[in-house]
Each structure stands twice: as C-alpha cells, then as structure tokens.
Design a protein that fits this description.
It contains eight helices and two strands, in the order H-H-H-H-H-H-H-E-E-H. It is mainly alpha-helical and about 210 residues long. Strands 1-2 form a two-stranded antiparallel ribbon.
Length: about 210
C-alpha cells in the first residue's frame, strides 16, 4: 500500500499541471534524496506543528525540529553526502549513522545502557520539578485557577481569577513514583496494569 502511494505521488508530481508546461518544479523533488522526503510514508511518524507551536518555540529548538523532520541535521551520513566527512559509519557498531540510528537504533549503545542513561538523565530533571511542586504547601483556596477572557477595551472584573496550583492545588496528599534506578511498579491502588510509565502522580483523597 505504501509503495503504491509513493509511486502515485511521484508520477503525479512529474506530470505537473498544464499551466506550467506539464511539469512542476516539485516534480524533480521525488528524485532528490533529502528534499524529496515529503513523498515517503514508510516508517514515518506523523508530527503536527501548529503556528502556535512555531511562535512559542525558541529559535534553536525550532531549527532543530525542522532540520530533524527533514533529516538535514549534521549526522555522519549527511556529512559524508555533503562532502564534509569521509566516514558515514557509527564509531560504536560500524553501521551507517543517520539521525534515527543516533537516537535509538545503535545495538552497541543499547547493550551498553547508553539509551537508558540518557532517558534517566531527562527523567530525573522532570521528576525533580514535579517533586518540588508536589511538596509545596497547598493554597488556602484549593479551587482550580482560571483565566478570564475579556473583550477588547474592557477591563477584567476583580475577584474573577481563583488562586491555585492547577491540579496539584486540589489536594494535599499527592504521591509520586518515577522509573529511576529501580524498576517502578505501577500503584495497584490507581490501576492494575503491566505497563511501565516514566512517572505517576496520584492523590488518594482526590480519587476517593
């Protein structure tokens, strides 16, 4: 199914429209290695980027997102294609090193626990932030905090916004577990499952 869709896209892009002589500029893109990636569907995860996401992102993060989406980051394979390096292979396993290989496909990095180490470093930062938020004293008003929407030229009415800490402000007995160091068991009081999430936060009184 995927191959037939890809062939159809290539054929359609090469035909173009009568208005430009029967061939569009994007007709050539199906034969270009990097710029033609938009005609490939196999093994691709859909990623939606809204205008709000773009405007809220820092320039470096946005640049990384776009370059990774089109596989134009300076990976060893790309550097070799661009003539900037003679060795496109992984220093650990010897296989061609593209972006996917660096992130999760190197067998040596997996066996040596490098992916686990990277995962734990990121999770430890998130867990520390959640733990600090969890230990903050609960506010007097446990109601959720809302944002009032007012029309242009009008002023917000006093007393319309409720103080709180979001969901954490609705209870004072939040508990947390993170999948760090030892294998985390999902709390049976919350749900019975064999899944292994990175982090779980729950409140006995909130669900009672």
């Amino acid at each position: 199914m995927g191959n037939s869709r890809q062939r159809s896209a290539k054929e359609a892009s090469k035909k173009g429209s009568p208005s430009d002589g029967g061939r569009l500029k994007n007709g050539k893109s199906s034969s270009i290695k990097k710029q033609g990636r938009w005609v490939i569907w196999e093994a691709a995860r859909q990623r939606k980027v809204t205008w709000n996401d773009i405007w809220s992102m820092e320039p470096d993060r946005l640049q990384f997102l776009l370059r990774s989406e089109y596989d134009v980051l300076p990976s060893p394979t790309n550097l070799a294609v661009w003539g900037l390096s003679d060795d496109p292979n992984c220093k650990l396993c010897g296989k061609p090193t593209n972006f996917e290989h660096i992130l999760s496909s190197c067998s040596v990095a997996l066996s040596e626990g490098r992916y686990t180490w990277r995962h734990d470093q990121i999770l430890s930062v998130l867990a520390d932030s959640f733990e600090k938020a969890r230990k903050r004293p609960p506010p007097k008003d446990k109601r959720l905090k809302f944002i009032n929407v007012v029309r242009a030229g009008e002023r917000e009415k006093s007393g319309g916004t409720l103080e709180g800490r979001g969901l954490l402000g609705t209870a004072g007995d939040w508990q947390m577990r993170a999948d760090l160091k030892t294998r985390m068991q999902f709390p049976t009081k919350v749900a019975s499952t064999y899944k292994r999430p990175d982090e779980v936060i729950w409140s006995p009184s909130y669900w009672s």
